[in-house]
């Protein structure tokens, strides 16, 4: 057996390869992004970035209807975007197996909410597996494709940040052989969801769930690990690992399929113990269903609903053990929030918005960090693409003198994901807000993925480069202007004049992200502060560039200083130093 | 909790290459025949934020994250981040700290001080603290980017795993053209 140490995401990709997947589609989203980036390493899989999650699922549905096995990956909030096709796919069922890996983010390490995707499994009546380590991530992916075809259903696999981004040792298998070749086969009664057809499908969906529940009671992925004592634990996913760590002696019912539940198995297990704990992350999903079976359990009345579980949190909640932190220093330790990179093209734009006192409706990307001090130039951020609609709505209700303050900011990739429809609405309904498309030629926050503006595909081949100016004009924006955000005075002036305009206008700030892998941005020599000229006005500090540091001086005024290991010589700070030649200058 | 599990917490600043260092460490532990799990957070935190990577090994590891107060070794790539995660150490735990300082935003803006004399404060509470001048040694190895290999070399002294296994892991994971300088960096760190 070949062994490797794989992250959950690498293991999902390996599982897709071993399961004979032909097509994979996704929109990047932490913590799911690396699945597709690993899938693309298997040349037999046609993997691609889709413009959004709804499109990715629709593409995969097409592949499945063509008879191929297809994989979709997404972060939890992406399921909201794909929910429309998802709920009907549940009725049509599949031809080739179709599996959706959804990665939740308990603790919101990189997300705007903490929704528990297991609720979608129940809501959409789609079965869901939940692996507890990388080995299961691989095994369950294979299994999910088999189950998808056997029961004619899409199948979810739920991951979480700790599964996706943890590595553990995995035994690799061989790819399955003998899958049927994709070819056209018409079946409109099953695939055309008109009311008359859909009415026939719904009872089949209900029957399918009953069949799967019965099947799953006899499968190895739901297993009892016998222990000793009077406590029984029902658990799944990474919570299983924590539970085993805290209760090494207890008996455990580990569920591999969290929807539908094997009720008989649960009933038999629970009957044997005086106390049954349900240990699960986020919502009381298992707990409520088990309670509805009339079984008394302990769960969220003690365990937290919010945030991640950890062994420590489980111990504290269930055993009342105080997390012992005797070694805390007591000293105040400055926080270290994330920050835009030195030389980030967005920085100057946010400085301008701050100075103009704009009311900024924000969106999802690195630029959401423009919310943090000292830039402090973002007032709302809801979900992918929301900035534009939010700006339309708020400017429609405001008194005229405040309307011109509203500016939407949105990244290039986010604009294509779900900003275009909002912009169309903005023009159609005669809003007067200003939209800034922060075009850094890449999907940066999730780790620099290609998108339709970047001119390259996931596989690295060249692609048509979407013309943002033309899209804006096509939906009716009359004033579309492109500017280099490194020219910070001009950028601010342009924003000022477009804010004053009583019509929709779009400003595209175009400059590549510092971290694009394929076209490495040239790093210029670092700047330095001429201390004789620095008046300690701190104007450059307002940029929040990680390379600019304030240094106190004993008995004298402090000075600004450039950390030459961090500075990339972008020259933006040079422009904000009011003293012209004073302040920050190039090293000879 | 099982006593046979050993825990190493890596801590530093996003962009310092901590994830790659923990990758090499995990490879070492797997080659040495242990069950290994490691866990970390990607995404937003990596933009210059505080970053940790948890590495656990032993006969059978369950949780991929280290319980609070149970780390055996705190492997710090930056002073303040090492200081921040001291509460993760068990009593008597060991610390390896790179002497680098990277200012967090509030300090860079002059709003808060950077705590003084961190290595000495750590050593005051954890006598088994080793300070490594990672950057100096990396420059000696010929490339400032080998600093993490220097630190791994220093870590290898704290762990009961043969030198050959470490060298093997580095050979497995470092691209050929950077191999020589990294092997040199490892030795410099190991002898520091
Ligand atoms: S990754 Fe790119 S877009 Fe994101 S902060 Fe860095 S430079 Fe800016
Ligand atoms: S030139 Fe100025 S703004 Fe640009 S990276 Fe260097 S210090 Fe930061």
Features:
heterodimer; A: 588 residues; 7-stranded mixed β-sheet; 6-stranded parallel β-sheet; B: 192 residues; alpha/beta; 6-stranded mixed β-sheet; 8 helices; 6 strands; 40% helix; 22% strand
Would you kindly provide a written description of the structure presented here, covering whatever features stand out?
The complex is a heterodimer of chains A (588) and B (192). Helix content of chain A is 34%, strand content 19%. Chain A contains 21 helices and 23 strands. In chain A, α10 crosses α13, α14 crosses α20 and α15 runs parallel beside α18. The longest helix of chain A has 22 residues. With 192 residues, chain B is an alpha/beta fold. Chain B has eight helices and six strands; from the N terminus they run βαβββαβααβαααα. In chain B, α5 crosses α8. Chain B is globular. Chains A and B meet through β8, α10, α13 and β21 of A and α1, β2, α2 and α3 of B. β8 of chain A pairs antiparallel with β2 of chain B. The structure holds iron/sulfur cluster (SF4) (2 copies). One iron/sulfur cluster binds next to α21 of chain A. Chain B: Keywords: Oxidoreductase. Chain B: This is Indolepyruvate oxidoreductase. Chain B: InterPro entries: IorB_Oxidoreductase, Pyrv/ketoisovalerate_OxRed_cat, Pyrv_flavodox_OxRed_cen. Chain A: Catalyzes the ferredoxin-dependent oxidative decarboxylation of arylpyruvates.
């Amino acid at each position: 057996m070949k062994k490797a140490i794989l992250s959950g995401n690498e293991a999902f990709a390996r599982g897709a390869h071993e399961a004979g997947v032909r097509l994979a589609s996704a929109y990047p989203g932490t913590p799911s992004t690396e699945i597709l980036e690993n899938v693309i390493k298997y040349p037999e899989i046609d993997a691609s970035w889709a413009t959004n999650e709804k499109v990715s699922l629709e593409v995969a549905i097409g592949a499945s209807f063509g008879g191929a096995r297809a994989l979709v990956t997404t972060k939890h909030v992406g399921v909201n975007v794909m929910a429309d096709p998802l709920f009907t796919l549940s009725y049509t069922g599949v031809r080739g197996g179709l599996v959706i890996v959804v990665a939740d983010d308990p603790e919101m390490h990189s997300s705007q909410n903490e929704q528990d995707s297991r609720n979608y499994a129940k809501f959409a009546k789609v079965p869901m597996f939940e692996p507890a380590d990388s080995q299961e991530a691989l095994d369950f992916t294979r299994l999910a494709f088999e189950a998808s075809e056997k029961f004619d259903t899409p199948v979810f696999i739920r991951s979480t940040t700790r599964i996706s981004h943890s590595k553990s040792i995995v035994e690799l298998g061989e790819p399955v052989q003998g899958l049927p070749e994709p070819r056209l086969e018409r079946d409109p009664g099953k695939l055309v969801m008109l009311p008359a057809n859909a009415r026939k499908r719904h009872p089949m969906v209900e029957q399918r769930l009953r069949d799967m529940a019965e099947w799953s009671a006899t499968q190895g992925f739901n297993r009892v690990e016998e222990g000793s004592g009077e406590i029984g634990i029902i658990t799944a996913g990474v919570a299983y690992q924590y539970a085993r760590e805290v209760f090494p002696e207890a008996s455990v019912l580990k569920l591999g399929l969290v929807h539908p539940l094997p009720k008989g198995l649960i009933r038999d297990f629970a009957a044997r113990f005086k106390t049954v704990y349900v240990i699960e992350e986020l919502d009381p999903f298992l707990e409520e269903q088990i309670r509805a079976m009339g079984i008394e359990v302990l769960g969220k009345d003690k365990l937290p609903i919010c945030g991640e579980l950890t062994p420590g949190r489980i111990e504290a909640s269930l055993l009342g053990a105080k997390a012992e932190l005797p070694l805390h220093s007591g000293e105040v330790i400055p926080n270290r929030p994330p920050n835009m990179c030195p030389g980030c093209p967005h920085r100057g734009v946010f400085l301008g918005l701050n100075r103009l006192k704009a009311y900024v409706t924000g969106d999802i990307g690195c630029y959401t960090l423009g919310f943090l001090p000292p830039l402090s130039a973002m007032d709302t951020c809801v979900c992918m693409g929301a900035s534009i609609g939010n700006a339309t709505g708020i400017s429609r209700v405001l008194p005229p003198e405040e309307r011109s303050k509203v500016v939407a900011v949105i990244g290039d990739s986010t604009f294509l994901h779900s900003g275009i429809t909002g912009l169309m609405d903005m023009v159609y309904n005669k809003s007067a807000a200003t939209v800034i498309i922060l075009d850094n030629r890449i999907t940066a926050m999730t780790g620099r993925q290609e998108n339709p503006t970047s001119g390259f595909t996931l596989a690295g081949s060249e692609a048509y480069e979407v013309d943002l100016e033309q899209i804006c004009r096509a939906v009716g924006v009359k004033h579309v202007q492109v500017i280099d955000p490194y020219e910070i005075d001009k950028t601010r002036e342009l924003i000022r004049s477009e804010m004053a305009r009583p019509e929709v206008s779009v400003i595209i700030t175009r400059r590549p992200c510092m971290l694009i892998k394929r076209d490495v941005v040239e790093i210029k020599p670092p700047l330095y502060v001429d201390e004789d000229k620095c008046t300690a006005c701190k104007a450059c500090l307002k940029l929040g560039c990680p390379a600019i540091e304030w240094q106190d001086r004993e008995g004298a005024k402090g000075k600004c200083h450039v950390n030459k290991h961090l500075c990339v010589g972008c020259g933006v700070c040079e422009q904000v130093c009011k003293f012209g030649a004073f302040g920050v200058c190039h090293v000879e | 909790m099982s006593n046979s599990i050993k825990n190493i917490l890596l801590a530093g600043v996003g962009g310092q290459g901590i994830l790659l260092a923990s990758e090499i460490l995990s490879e070492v532990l797997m080659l040495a025949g242990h069950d290994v799990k490691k866990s970390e957070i990607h995404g937003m935190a990596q933009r210059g934020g505080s970053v940790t990577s948890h590495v656990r090994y032993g006969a059978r590891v369950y949780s991929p994250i280290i319980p609070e107060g149970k780390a055996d070794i705190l492997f710090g790539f930056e002073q303040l981040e090492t200081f921040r995660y001291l509460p993760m150490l068990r009593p008597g735990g060991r610390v390896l700290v790179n002497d680098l300082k990277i200012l967090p935003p509030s300090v860079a803006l002059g709003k808060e001080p950077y705590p003084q004399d961190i290595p000495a404060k750590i050593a005051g509470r954890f006598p088994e603290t080793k300070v490594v001048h990672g950057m100096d040694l990396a420059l000696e190895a010929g490339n400032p980017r080998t600093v993490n290999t220097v630190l791994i070399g220093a870590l290898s002294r704290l762990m009961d795993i043969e030198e050959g296994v470490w060298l093997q892991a580095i050979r497995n994971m470092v691209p050929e053209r950077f191999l020589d300088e990294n092997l040199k960096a490892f030795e410099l760190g190991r002898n520091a």
